[in-house]
Amino acid sequence: MTFEVRYNDLGGRIGKLETLHGTLDTPAFIPVIHPVKQLIDINFIKKIGFKAVITNAYIAWKYYGDEAKKRGIHKIINFDDIVMTDSGGYQVLEYGEVKVKPREMAEFEIDIRTDIAVPLDKPTGYGLNYNNALENVEQTIKNVQETSNIIKNKSTNQSNESSKKIDIVWAGPVQGAEHLNLVKRSALSFDEMGFNLMALGSPVELMEAYEFATLSKIIYTLKKVIPSKPIHLFGAGHPLTIPLAVALGCDMFDSASYILYARDNRYLYSNGTTRLDGLTFFPCSCSICNSFSPKELLSLDETSRIIELAKHNLYVLKTEVNSVKNAILEGRLWEYLMSKAHCHPKLMEAVRLLKDFDNLDHGTSLFKEKAIYFNEPYDQYRPEARRFREMVTKYKPKEKFKIILYPETKIHPFYTSKEYSKLKNKFPNTEIFSYNPYLGLIPSEISDIFPASQNLTCYEYDSNSLAEQYPTFVNSLIHFLDKNKKEEIIIVANNFMKQIIYLINRKFESLKSSYNFKICNYDENFVFERLEDILK
Ligand SMILES: [Zn+2]
Fold first, then answer.
1. pTM of the full predicted structure?
2. How far apart are the CA of 148 and the centre of ligand 1, in A?
3. Predicted local confidence at residue 163, as pLDDT
4. Which of 63, 90, 225, 394 has its CA 20 to 30 A from that of 188?
5. Which CATH architecture has domain 372-535?
C-alpha cells in the first residue's frame, strides 16, 4: 500500500492513498451508502465530488450473497470509484450478534473486490466496563488474526496470477474507546500483523454527546503508537469533529450523519447543526439552498424533504473538508481550529488539551510563508511558539556585554526596526533582546527566524490577570535571568513586562535577591535618555 504525504500542519496531512479503483486524496470524507435502500442517488454523491463511499459488507452479504461476488460491490451499489466496506461490527453493537464468521466475511470482502476493507470486529462502544471492553478487544484481535491469515493466503494465490502491485487496503479496527491502554494494545497488534491502515472505532455516543475531549485523547493515544500510517476515523460526520480529528492526525472519516440528521430535520452548517424549522434564512449557497427557502423545504413531502436536506448536508461536509485542506496548505490549521473552537465549548475543551500533545510539533513546518497569528493567550502553546522558546533557551549572549530587554515593535525582524538602530548606536556594547508575550525573549541576532520574523500579535495590556495568563513567558524570563546571573540586565518594561516582573517578585521571593536586573520604565513618554541614565 502506498500512502504519500504531501503537506503537513500540526498532525494534519494532505496525502494520497493508492487503492485498486484509484487514488484517494486525503483528508477525505467518505459518505455511508446503504447497499440495499440508499435514498440519495449515488450519482449525485459522485457528481458533487466524493471519490469514495463506504458501505456495509455484512448487509451486502446477507442481501445479495453470491450475486455480490459475481458482480462485485461496485456494480451492486453503482459506484465505479473507491469503495470501502465495513464488516458488520457496527451491527453487533446495534443488534447483538451477527451470523457470520470472520473468515467468511474476509473472503466475501475479497470476492466482492472492495478497495478498502475492514475485518469483522467487535466494537467496544462507550461506557463499557474495562473487563468487557478487554474481552471485545481480545475477540477483535483474534478475528483480525484469522482475517490476516486469509489475506496472506489469498494474496499468495493472486500474486501467482497477476503482477499487480496494488491490492485491497485492509484496515485494522482499533477498539478500546476510553480505555486508552486497550486502544494502544489493539493498534500495536494490528501494526505487528502488517496492517497499513488503522480504523479507529469511535463510539457514536461520544460523538453525539460532543465528547470531543475524550475523542482527542483516544486519537492522541493511537497516533503516539502509530505515527505514520494513515488513520480512518469511524462515524465522524460533523463539521466540528472534522477539523479537530484532522489536526490530531486522522486522514479519513465516514459517517451517515448527512442522512440521519436529515431524517431528524437537522440542517448542518459550518459550526454545527440547527433545526430546519428554526431557520428563516439559509446560511449556505449550495444548489439546494439556492432553490428553496426554509419554508418551502419544510413544505415538501417527507421523503423529498429528507433527500434535499441530506444533499445540502453533504455539501457542507465536503466544504468542511476543503476548508481544512486549505488551512493545512496555508499553514493556518491552528488558527482554523481555534476559530471553530470558539463556536462550541465542548470543542474548546478538546482544543485545550493540545498544549500537552507533544506529537503536533513534528508535522508543523519550521518555516511558513505566511505570518502566524497570536490572538489569545492559549496561542502561546502552538508548536511554532513552543519550538522557538525552546531554541532560545540554548542561545548564549555575548560575554561582558550588558543586556537590554526591549518591547517588541511592529517591525519584524526586530533588527531592521528604527528602535534597534538607535539602541545599537547609543549603546554599542550591549546585546539587545526584544520580547513578545507568546514567544518570550527574542535575541535580535535571530529575530529573522520564523516565527519571530513573521507573526501578528494581539496585545492586551489591561487585563488584571495578564501575567498569570502567560506562564510560558514567565518561565522563559526566569530561565533567562537564572542563566545570566553574572550579566547586567536592563529590562525596558512595558505594562505587560511590569506585570510579569511583579508576579515573579511576588511568587519567587527567594529567587528575587539573586537576580541582577534593573528596570527602565517604558511608557508613551519613553525617551532613550532614560535608558542612558540607567546604563551609565
Ligand atoms: Zn446548502
1. 0.94
2. 43
3. 47
4. 90
5. 3-Layer(aba) Sandwich (3.40)
